[in-house]
Amino acid sequence: MISVNDFKTGLTIEVDGGIWRVLDFQHVKPGKGAAFVRSKLRNLRTGAIQEKTFRGGEKVAKAQIDNRKMQYLYADGDNHVFMDNENYEQIELPAAQIEYELKFLKENMEINIIMYQGETIGVDLPNTVELKVTETEPGIKGDTSSGGSKPATLETGLVVQVPFFVNEGDTLVINTTEGSYVSRA
């Protein structure tokens, strides 16, 4: 058990029969009444994000999560195949379970698979990934880096807003949390 006063971003907890990752939290001490913790949680099984308020000092169960380093191999219909780098064991995850993460996954990319008591829950993405631009409008002479943005389609099908100076074939650093442009690689 862990106190909600000890919440940290990235902590995994068990609440209401679900496994949740703490995305954000805020300790609130109102002038009148008891202190509480306002939190933003992501369900690791469904991907749903929920805001939940806990009383100050309330105890929740900490979930024991195992991360296994695996390589994304390929898509097989509605399933996606991952291989353990140590024992070459392969697992399949349905597209519905990792719908958001698929926007950032390339073949042969190494990522962490989240396991809970032998159950494969999902994919833990790195903070940033490098993806190549496959389609975007050409930049016009005179456009500046601070003067707006245009849409660009990346190799995984993700569409992000990028500065005008980005061209087709450029490799970009993309933030996986927000799905946004960070810089050119």
UniProtKB/TrEMBL annotation:
<dbReference type="InterPro" id="IPR001059">
    <property type="entry name" value="Transl_elong_P/YeiP_cen"/>
</dbReference>
<comment type="function">
    <text>Involved in peptide bond synthesis. Stimulates efficient translation and peptide-bond synthesis on native or reconstituted 70S ribosomes in vitro. Probably functions indirectly by altering the affinity of the ribosome for aminoacyl-tRNA, thus increasing their reactivity as acceptors for peptidyl transferase.</text>
</comment>
<protein>
    <recommendedName>
        <fullName>Elongation factor P</fullName>
    </recommendedName>
</protein>
<dbReference type="InterPro" id="IPR012340">
    <property type="entry name" value="NA-bd_OB-fold"/>
</dbReference>
<dbReference type="InterPro" id="IPR015365">
    <property type="entry name" value="Elong-fact-P_C"/>
</dbReference>
<keyword id="KW-0963">Cytoplasm</keyword>
<dbReference type="Pfam" id="PF01132">
    <property type="entry name" value="EFP"/>
</dbReference>
<dbReference type="GO" id="GO:0003746">
    <property type="term" value="F:translation elongation factor activity"/>
</dbReference>
<dbReference type="InterPro" id="IPR011768">
    <property type="entry name" value="Transl_elongation_fac_P"/>
</dbReference>
<dbReference type="InterPro" id="IPR013852">
    <property type="entry name" value="Transl_elong_P/YeiP_CS"/>
</dbReference>
<feature type="domain" description="Elongation factor P C-terminal">
    <location>
        <begin position="129"/>
        <end position="184"/>
    </location>
</feature>
<comment type="similarity">
    <text>Belongs to the elongation factor P family.</text>
</comment>
<dbReference type="InterPro" id="IPR013185">
    <property type="entry name" value="Transl_elong_KOW-like"/>
</dbReference>
<keyword id="KW-0251">Elongation factor</keyword>
<comment type="pathway">
    <text>Protein biosynthesis; polypeptide chain elongation.</text>
</comment>
<keyword id="KW-0648">Protein biosynthesis</keyword>
<dbReference type="InterPro" id="IPR014722">
    <property type="entry name" value="Rib_uL2_dom2"/>
</dbReference>
<feature type="domain" description="Translation elongation factor P/YeiP central">
    <location>
        <begin position="67"/>
        <end position="121"/>
    </location>
</feature>
<dbReference type="Pfam" id="PF09285">
    <property type="entry name" value="Elong-fact-P_C"/>
</dbReference>
<dbReference type="InterPro" id="IPR020599">
    <property type="entry name" value="Transl_elong_fac_P/YeiP"/>
</dbReference>
<dbReference type="InterPro" id="IPR008991">
    <property type="entry name" value="Translation_prot_SH3-like_sf"/>
</dbReference>
<dbReference type="Pfam" id="PF08207">
    <property type="entry name" value="EFP_N"/>
</dbReference>
